[in-house]
Amino acid sequence: IALLLPAAGTAMAVDPVIQDLINQAGLKSTTTQRGQMDTVGFAARAKQMDAVMEQVGLLAGPQRQAILDKYGWQEDTPFIAAVCPHDDYYYAGRLYGLVMPHIKAKRVIIFGVFHKDRYCETRERLVFGSFKKWHGPYGAVKVSPLREQIIQRLPEIDYMIDNNAQIVEHSVEAMVPFLQAHNRDMEIVSILVPYLRWKQMDRISDDLAQAISSLMREKGWKLGEDLCLISSADAIHYGDANVQSERKLAWNDTTDATQTELFLDGSSLRIGVASDQTIGFDAVINALDIDSIYAV
Questions:
Q1: What are the Cα distances from residue 38, in Å, to 21, 23, 60?
Q2: CA-to-CA distance for 286 and 177, rounded, in angstroms?
Q3: Stated pTM of the model
């Protein structure tokens, strides 16, 4: 069992419940590389991921071609952002297959929910880690230096650094194998979004948007080419069921997430959405500063 030495700003004591969760990780983490929490239903090795990609191609192929034809997109049309569920590949594989081929940027910021935030003191703050690499089926995945650059521009009240939280949460790691399958050289930044009240969400998303946009301007980066944002959705885990049902019906007339076809377009920039619910999407939209959003 690897007990991690926490980075600055991380509580030294490890809660017994969190430690028990860490012990359950399928692939253990080290002080510098995050392992993998779930290895059942998710690929951890190259051979496994090769098989997943072959099956996903067969499942998603016809629907993907229909979407390309419908919107006049090309095979290599890049998305500037995407919302995708992080479920077991058996359930959500086709949706990964619709989104991930269009992630072309070298750097990807992945927003994940934090299922275990009730065991940690993480509410009202974004959660970063300090790992240098993450496990990927095709080798280690580099964490982008962009992470530290973003952190430096955020008010301290907005975030915390907690490797244990990053270890026990699976919403980000589910995206990594698909991203790596399409781009072996991609870099990631993992940002967990625990429980936030609306007021805090507005403040933090504004601060994060300013940090990211200012860095992009300084570096001359373009969304979709140099940086992409992915929101790892949890479908209907949260919120009032009736409210969520109304939102779902307002967005799409199907209750089957695998059949949902939502693609948003703002200022001619493409955002792929492969879910019937998009928890935390507000933060992504705010970060992109897109005023006009509509479904087609």
A1: 11, 12, 24
A2: 27
A3: 0.79
